[in-house]
Every structure is written in C-alpha cells, then in structure tokens.
Amino acid sequence: MQGAQVVPIAYSVRRSDRARRVRVTVDAGGTVEVVLPRAASDRAAALAVAELAPWIERRVERARQARAAVASRGGTLPYLDSTLELVAQPGRTRAYRRSRELLVPDDASALTAIERWYRRAARAEIAPRLDRACAATDVTYSRLTIRSQRTRWASCSRGGAMSFNWHLLLAPSEILDYVVWHEVCHLQVMDHSPRFWALLERHLPRCREHARWLREHGPTLTLELAPWR
After folding, report:
1. Is the residue at 91 inside a domain?
2. I want to staple 210 with a disulfide (CB 3.0 to 4.6 A). Which of 56, 69, 155, 178 is the partner?
3. pTM strictly above 0.70
4. For residue 76, how many other CB atoms are within 10 A of its CB?
5. Are residues 136 and 198 both part of a single domain?
C-alpha cells in the first residue's frame, strides 16, 4: 500500500534589511510568506517551511475555515451579540443602522461606509466599558483611540493611552469586554506575567477562555471577506 502523497507547501519569499532571523507568516487568506534576512540563502526559506510544516498546515486550514465562516454570513454582519442585515440603498453615502438593518450605499463605496460606521460605533461601545472598568479598579487612562491595527486588538501605553481595534465589534460582547479589561489591567501591570493574569482573572474569571476564542476566531473578525450584497 502506497503512502499518502505529500503536497508541497506554496510560499513566497521576501527579503528584509531589518530581519534578524527567518520568519514564517500565514495571513488571513492562507498565504504563506517567508521573511529572510538580506544575507540568508534561499535554502533557509525551504528549511524553515519544512520544519514548520505542521504549524503552517494548521494555520492555512484555520484561514480556510475563517473564510468559509465569513462567506456563510451572506448579506449580514455581526455586531457584538446581534446580526445586522445589510440593505443597499441607491444614493446613500453613509451607513446607518435602523433596528437590525444596516443601510449602506449601493455602489463600490459601501465597504468604506461600513468601516466608518463600525469605527464610530466602536468608540460609543468601548468608551463606557473602559470608564466602568477604570472606575472599578481606581485607575485612569489618558486617551482613547480607535484604530484598525493589523496585528493587535488593543494596546496600552505607559502613559495610559488606550487604543482599540474596531474589528472587535464583529466579536461577541464578552470578547470586547475581555479586551477592555485586559488593557485596563495593563494600567497596573504592563507585562503578561503571572501577576498580570492573576489580576485579570480576579476581575474576569473566564479571561483565558476569551483569549483562546480570540486566537481561534480572530481571523473571522473582518469585513474584507464578507459579501454584503
């Protein structure tokens, strides 16, 4: 009996003057890229892909599942614990929520309008959560910014500046609450030491469960792959 055929992993190579070591990434679309230091040989990329093959295959499969989950939304988008039906209207320039509907432009500007609406909604959802969590722990923050970070869901500077990714509104509300509490706890402990996790767990006993959810389902928190009409 012949063994199963091994399918080669397709990847691209990018050289970087800033890279100090070989790095392999798998993006939300399942594309594999190897970043090489400028002086590294092409063989280093092949060796890295071979060594990390099981991890790469898991990430590619997770990306495929994420794309399938996003495609299954049809003409809807998640909004915390709700589902909004996208309704395209000719002549509309801004997205507007009407009960369980999100009214959007009927042209190529729809995606931009939807993102702007989520950005505005993110501030309205996050600010009161952040204020309540800070009041409960007797800490303060200096500034709140809503962004669209590629690699972070949120951040907290040593000066108390808070930044949150608006894509979090595509997750269940308990996940948004987790990220808010995560950053508020950083106002007291800036690292991810056992002390930090003990503090976060005191305020949010299911924090590790929420962290796992975000790692597993984070790739689905996107507009780019969602058909809106």
Report:
1. yes
2. 178
3. yes
4. 18
5. yes
pLDDT tens-digit profile of 83-139?
999 999 999 999 999 999 999 999 889 999 999 999 999 999 999 999 999 999 999
Could you say which DSSP state residue 218 is in?
G
Residue matched to tokens 């894509």: 167
Burial class (CB in 10 A: 0-12, 13-18, 19+), 37: middle
CA geometry: angle 175, 167, 174, nearest 5 deg? 10
Beta pairing, strands 143-147 & 101-105:
unpaired
Listed in sequence order, the residues at least 6 apart from 196 whose beta carbon sits closer than 8 Å to its beta carbon are 185, 186, 189
d(CA 80, CA 52): 35
Structure token pair of residue 24? 């392999």
Helix (H, G, I), strand (E, B) or coil at 219: helix
H helices of the chain, in order, are 42-51, 53-71, 110-137, 173-186, 194-203, 207-217
Q: Please give the C-alpha separations between residue 51 and each of 8, 25, 30, 173, 224, in angstroms, as whole numbers.
A: 13, 13, 18, 38, 31
In a domain, residue 68? The reply is no
**How many CB atoms are closer than 10 A to CB 215?**
10
